[in-house]
Inverse folding.
């Protein structure tokens, strides 16, 4: 009887761990490759609100969740600017989205976002995800986290999820340019070969956590 009791207790513990693990995964779950991405309307540092659908000439977007305060985001800033410069005219502009709770990081307030966008001369829209609902929908967990979506009719389909490249510390040491490879494939009418990688950066600061 004692042996049965021990096994039963272990079963309860394992079931509890399974529930916690499932909850953690479901909380972090976002779009998968091939999913239709819901459009959004977010406040832009350039004024007004921005959505994906409003740019009729866009073939798709390079969407990057980033911010002002994170050292990783700062390290990638010039690379994000270069991506927009290279691909916006080809139909894949950058949309940069700041998902952080500005109450946790003063650098990430909308006013400071505007100041950075102006001082650095951003050519892309820098958007504030004030409710953090867009970051949650995408399953973003870190800044920077990058995505490529392709327009198909009136829909946007997820094509790539992960990092911008393979070197978060040194732009000169990059050997694999994931975003560039993905967009180049799409522009050539080919499927994205490497469509899922790991993003490296600062954890997003969620409100109420």
């Amino acid at each position: 009887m004692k042996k049965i009791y021990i096994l039963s207790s272990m079963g309860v513990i394992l079931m509890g761990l399974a529930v916690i693990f499932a909850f953690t995964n479901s909380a972090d779950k976002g779009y998968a490759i091939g999913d239709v991405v819901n459009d959004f309307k977010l406040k832009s540092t350039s004024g007004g609100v921005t959505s994906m659908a409003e740019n009729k000439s866009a073939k798709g977007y390079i969407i990057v969740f980033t911010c002002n305060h994170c050292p990783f985001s700062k390290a990638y800033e010039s690379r994000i600017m270069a991506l927009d410069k290279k691909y916006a005219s080809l139909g894949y502009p950058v949309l940069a989205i700041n998902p952080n709770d500005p109450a946790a990081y003063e650098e990430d307030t909308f006013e400071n976002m505007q100041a950075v966008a102006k001082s650095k001369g951003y050519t892309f829209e820098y958007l504030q995800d004030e409710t953090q609902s867009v970051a949650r929908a995408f399953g973003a967990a870190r800044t920077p986290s990058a995505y490529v979506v392709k327009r198909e009719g009136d829909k946007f389909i997820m094509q790539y999820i992960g990092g911008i490249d393979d070197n978060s510390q040194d732009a000169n040491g990059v050997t694999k340019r994931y975003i560039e490879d993905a967009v180049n494939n799409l522009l050539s009418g080919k499927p994205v070969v490497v469509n899922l990688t790991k993003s490296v950066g600062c954890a997003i600061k969620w409100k109420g956590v």
